[in-house]
Amino acid sequence: MKTRIVIVIVVIALLTAACGGPAATPVAKDKIRIAVVMPSAITDMAFSQSMWSALKAVQTEMGGESALELKYSENMFKVPDAAAAIRDYASQGFDIVIAHGSQYGTSVQEIATDFPKTTFAWGTDVNTFGLPNVHAYTAAAEEGGYVNGVLAAMLTKSKKIGVTGPVEVGDAKTYIDGFVQGVTSVDPSINVSKTWTGSFSDVALMTEAAKTHIASGADALTGSSQSVVGSIGAAKDNGSVLWFGTQQDQSSLAPNLVVASQQYDWTAMIKEMIKNHQAGKLGGDKYVLQLKNAGLKMLYNAGYKLPDEVKKAGDAAIEGIKSGSIKVNP
Amino acid sequence: MPTEAVVVPARSRRRFVFDWKEILYRAAVPILAMLAAFTVGAVLLLLLNVNPFTAYAALIEGAFGSTYSITQSLVKATPLLLVALGICIAFRASVINVGGEGQIILGALMATWFSLQFRAWPGWLLIPATIIMGFMAGAAWGFVPGILKARLGVNEILTTIMMNFIALQLMNLLLRGPLMDPGGVTAGTFLAQSERLPEQVWLARMIPQTPLHTGFILAVALAFVVYIFLWRTTIGYRIRAVGLNPHAARYAGIKVPFNQALSLTLAGGFAGLAGVVEVLGVHHRLLEGITSGYGFTGIVAALFGGLHPLGAIPASYLFGSLLVGADKMQRAVQVPSALVDTIMGLVVMFVVGSAWLSRRWAARRLAATAKRQEVK
Amino acid sequence: MDKIFTTVVIVGILSSAIRLATPYLYASIGETIGQLSGVVNLGVDGIMLMGAYAAFFVVLNTGNLWLGVLAAMVVGLLMGLLMSLISVTLKAEQGISGIGLYIFGLGLSTLLFKVTIGTVKTVDGFQPIKIPVLGNIPILGEVFFNNNVMVYIAFLLVPAAWWVLEKTTWGLRIKAAGQNPAAADSLGVNVDRVRYMSVCLGGMLAGLAGAALSLALVKLFQENLTAGMGFIAVALVYFGGWKPVGVLGGALLFSTVNAFQLWMQVLGVNINSNVAVMLPYLLTIAALAFTMNRARQPAGLNVPYERGES
Q: What is the pTM of this model?
């Protein structure tokens, strides 16, 4: 009985080993291969999704899978796993490996030196470690925050605005700080109250936070992170509370109530990285998504009727930030 | 409550003599269970239009295919082993420690704060001091549920679960304030991570170009220490007695609540150590997500090792390999990472559900041995 | 500080608390029944996720809310069946099989969500129904009698569970199976069958908790929607001393403090947000420690029953 089991195990092991790995795809000469490692899901309606949609958009523009090969690893919130993934993609010969998470910095620093022919892009941060094959990128989330703040300040009738935040760090913090500056620039007497749920994923608590703001009189809301879908849901439930979004176009969730979203548009950056890579420049650039370089886009929701003078104020804010006359502090 | 299914040959009085045949038999059942779980996983893969053979080949290649992957598995095994050691101690006293996540955080927090605070100290002093402080921080986090249980009868499942959430908020609070990397503040990125720890406190890399660090040696050494502690010291004996039969232990004069609290405190300390090695050996700073779920997966590793500190060593390595291989599989066939989690869940359920088979075979072997000894 | 005691705020806090408590009530009462019969199920969170997904998926595609609720109950029942199989028949270590169930439920619900829905969508879900007459009482009316039907059912579960456990033979059998399985067996109670039914019932209720979450509370589904709620629900069973009314107290305490800390943040009370978020957990521990509620757990909890073994 026992011998039989041992034999079975050995046979299975041999079979699996014999089947080998996936056959290596012959790479067409001009085909670009990009791999991306992300800390959350590609469907998170926020940070990771913005990068993945941008990559897919570039792929379509370039002509599909045969022109641009894409591979991803999601939910890599464990840094050593992400490091293994980054290293693995690099050793598989990917041209560009994107480490889409601020916690991956140390890993990128170590791995990039082992693969001098690969371009590594790392965000969100500004440090390229002085390495010739590392790009760094951030998003000046506070810029769109400012514009949203201006719009919200002009649209609020109750003079109360609610902010539902996850944890006060990273671009959640910078976005919200920008938002508050935008509101203050229009009317400093408006009450902006902030709540932090202490989690990026607790949707139920985020919903309740939004409802609390609404119950206390807020008629406009904003917030950040993937759990913010809960806030949008609460706004939709109420029926008349306006929503201002960031990181991703969130108007599909509440078509009549989303006024504007700050969209992270990585496509220009990706295209430039590809161009640079093909030209031989593998790194050394620091990209900042800004309104100025179209990395940040303010998307007005067509489903919401925005009064003209409000749109004008919003556009003026955008122009002001682009030209530098308005300075927003992160 | 933990059933002693191991047949210990009566003859041996030497310290580390193992009955290899026995161990092999005991390992056979969980391995078979794992294969059964993978078969179910293969069905899921087929439903997603993925060739299961390609996928599993990638898993094996990812786990064992290169020096790098093997060292990666060892690096993962280190915190798993440390948490598992704590779980072993607690289980022996019939205490369930689901507070690993919080205890890891406390150990990591203390390691970060302490090594940044005393960054002027030389490495040979700072590393051991940080390790000890980290252990104590985790132990303190295990002590609170322990004392509440011992003195006030408050159930430890409740307290440990609550304290996991409290620890998380504590870490968030410190990371976004006093412990935040000053570099992140000036650069305007405000990332949820601490400053990079001073280089002298980093655990040395054992093989260059690989992530394997000396924390692994520490963990293995501690496994032997825990073994000696549980089976060769009086305190260890008392802890095990409390777990096997609390009533008898009480009649024998052993203080049951005290020993249960003690086991929970120790379990917390070991989990805290897992946090310390992750900070000192892997990330070299504190960042959110530092626990990586080891507070729970450590429990699974302990189970795979038969809730024995020495069994936890190969179990942690194998479980770590499984995790590493699964990631590689995800990359190779581009399935959602959730598929990997689903298969992991199946593996745990199948392995834990096959324990009765282990026990039945062990009982049969015992009967066979007894019969043979009768004949003599 | 006087901002806190206005009507709007008090009504707001209590209404939030009632809403937040709903999923905990379903899941905790289910787990209480399972534990009273002798089985601890740490996989509640995984069952909640599967229930939430199933309910949401059905509603997204059919628009029928009750069909969604039914789907959640069926899925919960199946997960409960799996847990019973492993813990009762195969006599596995319950704490660990529960965690395996959790990982499985989390993984499968995420996988199914990604493959069948893909991106976050919302549904209209359950709307609040105002109870005539009672709903018009000032303050109390707004708080208690103007909620959606899933909330009402959750609160009705408390007396229902109490009645079943205290006043029916079935309840007696459940408690016997958990307290003294050997004695129960000798009196003709089929311990394994009672445990199966209790755990499956617990699973159904956990599935309902998920449905309440995705159809009534947040009205959407996202991966890991519960974010650990199931574990809190298990903890509340201990807090409640294995009594439905105790569980109600625990769920309300926890949710009220949570609602309270949110309001404090909104009103701009000067408290660190991380400390505020910690409050519900701290106070729950404190409440149990200081009320000296030393209810003893069912003696047979977490011990697989084998006839012939004592």
A: 0.85
